[in-house]
Amino acid sequence: MGTSLLEFFPMRIGMIWLWLSIFLWTSISLSGTLTLKDEVGREVTFPFPPRRIVSLAPNVTEILFSLGLNEEIVGVSTHCNFPEKAKSKVPVGSYIRLDFERITSLHPDLIIGTGAGNTRDMVDRLEKLGFQTYVIYPKHFEGILRSIDHIGQVVHREREAKTIIDGMRKRSQQVIELTKGLPRPKVFIQIGEAPIVTVGKGSFADDLIRLAGGENIAGKEKEMYPHLGLEEILKRSPEVIVISSMNPKGDYQKISQGWNQWKTLPAVKTGRIHLMDSDLIDRPSPRIIDGLEELAKVLHPERFKKPLPN
Questions:
Q1: Could you tell me the CATH superfamily of domain 31-156?
Q2: Angle ∠(117,120,122) on CA atoms, nearest 5
Q3: pLDDT tens profile 245-264
Q4: Could you give the CA distance from residue 86 to residue 74 in angstroms, rounded to a whole number?
C-alpha cells in the first residue's frame, strides 16, 4: 500500500529538519570559531574548542585542570602550583611581568587571564601580537562559580563545569545550614606581618568568613586588604585569629607565638589561633570550597565533629 499524504508530509518535514540540523552543525564546526563576551565586557573570538591554551593566573590553571584539561594547557604563570601537573607546564611569567616572547613561541589559540592581576595594558599588548585573551574577574564565592561556568563554555566542558558547580553549591549549603543561628565569633585573618595586613570588604576571605558563620573585624573597611595597627586589633578583640600562609618564606609559627603575649585578646585566652593555607581562602578556584569548610570548622568546631559528606 502506498504512503498517504497525511503520513508523507510529517516524514518530509522531519527529514528537512534533520538535514537542516546537520547543515547548521557542520557550519559551526567548519567555521571553527566562537565569540563570547568575557567578564570585563570584552568580545573575544577564538578557535573553538581551543587546543592550545595559556593560563595567566593560578586560579585559571586550577579551573582548567579541574575541567579535565591537560594537554591543551601549554603555558601557565610562574605561581601556578596546583595540581602537581601544573608545575611541569611552560612558565610564561607572573601577574605583573609576562614573558611575551615565550607566550608567542607557544602559539596559543586562546589565553585566559584575570582582571584581579593582569592589567589592561597586558591584554592589549597580547591582542596586538594576535592573541585573543578571555578575562575572568570573580569577586566573591558566587562569582567563582560563574567563572567556572564561563571557562567551561569557553573550553567546551560545560557538563564538567556543572558537576563542579553543583558540588560546590551543595557543600557550601551544608556549611550554611550547620552554622545557621549560631553566635558569630569575631574573626581576624592576618595575611601580612610587617605591616599587619588583613582582609576587608570585597575580598574572598571576607565572603568566606560570612558564609562560615563568622564576623570579620575588618569587614567594614573600604580597602580590600587594609593595614590595621596592633592597637586597633586589640581594641576590636577578635575571638579567632587565622594566620594565612601567603608568604612561602614566612615563619608562621613565630607569628602565631607572637600573638600569645597579648593575654587580653579573647583568641589568645581560648587558644584559638590557627594557620591556614592562603591558596584555600584567597584563590578563586574550585578549592575555595575546601577553605570554606576548613574555616567553618575553625569557627564552629562543635558543629563539625563528623566528616562532611562531599
A1: Nitrogenase molybdenum iron protein domain (3.40.50.1980)
A2: 80
A3: 766 666 677 888 889 889 99
A4: 10
